[in-house]
Amino acid sequence: MAQITDENMYLDNSIHYIDHLKPQCEKCFGLCCVALYFSVQDGFPTDKSAGTPCPNLEADFRCMIHEKLGALGLKGCVAYECFGAGQQVSQVTFAGQNWRLKSASADLMFAVFLIMQQLHEMCWYLTEALSFKLASPICEEIRKALYETERITQLPPHSLREFNLSAHRTKIKVLLRNVSKLVRSEISRINKVTFNADKERKATADFFGRDLRKRDLRCADLRGACLIAANLEGVDLSGTDFIGADFRDANVRGANLSKSIFLTQSQINVAKGNSNTKLPLTLFHPKHWDAKDNTNE
């Protein structure tokens, strides 16, 4: 049987993401714990407004309950991913000047962080897109978009706050959609899967609590799909586009996500998997995925 492999999916045998697209909390001033709006209902430790420090944020900008987030059921904290925006804003945009010592710039710093997080997320997706051998026909377009987005991340604070993020995001969204169709069509051809560019998109994207174990979701377009508490146990999800999909409490135990596209660590963090769940090269199994925590739920 034909099968998509690392060798024919990627430009090389591994994907080397730029370090600044991975969070380095020790280089950040706890921006996600201050700039974000918190709601207990959304899985955060308290209700707080944007710009107010979380009570668990210590003087050295570390979280005093970080190692207990999963055990405490704080899924909002567990899921959040800044894609390295925290250290970029802290160490580059504001040159190491933290919001406590420079309170006059605090609101600007928080606003820029929210913008930077979205720009870095775009960089993550574009870098992944650039790694796909199957997307080589449009690699130059992807490369230019990545270069332009990275250039924007280097702008000074006031320029970042005034930047038309919506227009840029729309442009990147169109490009990533084209990448998705190209990659999914090639994977479907290699694996002999019937391909429809809008497979699953024509149907409802709400799979809340649904048992999807008998559905052929290979190469499906599940962008933005609601997969909350859906059962994907043991399902082959090769070539499936998950950009923006909601994985909260989705059962992915034993599922093959290794060749899925546009999947992020934050999505994996809120799903329920185990050691048999296969992930893309750039993602890792969360600590709370061990048998003790979620096999017998």
UniProtKB/TrEMBL annotation:
Pfam families: Pentapeptide. SUPFAM superfamilies: Pentapeptide repeat-like (SSF141571). It comes from the Bacteria. Signal peptide: none annotated. InterPro entries: 5peptide_repeat, Pentapeptide-BTB/POZ_domain. This is Pentapeptide repeat-containing protein. It comes from Desulforamulus aeronauticus DSM 10349.
